[in-house]
Design brief:
By secondary structure, this protein is of the alpha+beta class. Helix content is 17%, strand content 38%. The protein is globular, with a radius of gyration of 30 Å.
Length: 214
């Protein structure tokens, strides 16, 4: 039996090892590095999420004081307790006009999308000279060309809007004005005032403000 010279054996071993390494490198370039865990889940953008679909009207939260949760986590700032919070979903125009394609004057609107929009009051509040107890309320709107009627309702944890006047707590008529902005997404925010805060509701080129006193 013939034996290989040490130099020839080393050359053959190096050649085989190099060929295998190059093959693995090319394979990694195509598919990525191999994982020691054969159960590894590969996430791709083109697959449907099996747990929850992406909502085109994302949920949002607005606090007063503004950005309360962020301020609370800042050690160097003493932050008063929150006074109000609104939770709502944010529909968007997608090339449509608000009162041409989406809403109608005189018909109740949930002030958002999906679940009913909810207002949390952490303390007794005065809204348009009416005392409102601390608690959770559904918010909805009856829009007209020059004014919006904002209604507080007790039918919390509900989907959509099914107005039941027997559950209405209070209503407020407020002016609505045109602005130079044109907002794609419906927006609710609180803005500090000398007496408390305005809850601003804005969409398309319209803006309405509901004043709160604490």
């Amino acid at each position: 039996m013939k034996s290989f010279a040490p130099g020839l054996f080393l050359l053959l071993t190096t050649t085989v090892f190099s060929a295998c390494s190059n093959k693995e490198k090319k394979q990694e370039e195509k598919t990525g590095p191999a994982s020691p865990d054969s159960s590894r889940v590969v996430i791709t953008d083109n697959k449907v999420n099996p747990y929850a679909i992406l909502d085109i009207s994302p949920m949002d939260i607005s606090y007063f004081p503004v950005d309360y949760p962020k301020l609370k986590m800042t050690d160097s700032v003493t932050v008063p307790s929150p006074l109000a919070r609104v939770i709502y979903s944010r529909p968007h125009l997608q090339g449509r006009r608000l009162f041409t394609d989406l809403l109608k004057y005189g018909e109740p609107w949930r002030l958002g999308a999906n679940e009913s929009t909810e207002l949390d009051l952490y303390a007794e509040t005065v809204i348009r000279n009416k005392k409102i107890k601390a608690g959770r309320y559904v918010l909805y709107c009856i829009p007209e060309a020059d004014s919006w009627t904002i209604v507080l309702n007790s039918n919390i944890d509900s989907w959509g809007l099914h107005p039941n006047p027997t559950k209405d707590i209070a209503s407020f008529s407020i002016p609505v004005r045109q602005t130079t902005n044109r907002l794609e997404y419906f927006t609710i925010i609180f803005e500090k005032t000398s007496g408390g805060a305005d809850m601003i509701m804005a969409w398309d080129n319209l803006e309405a403000r509901l004043p709160f006193s604490f």
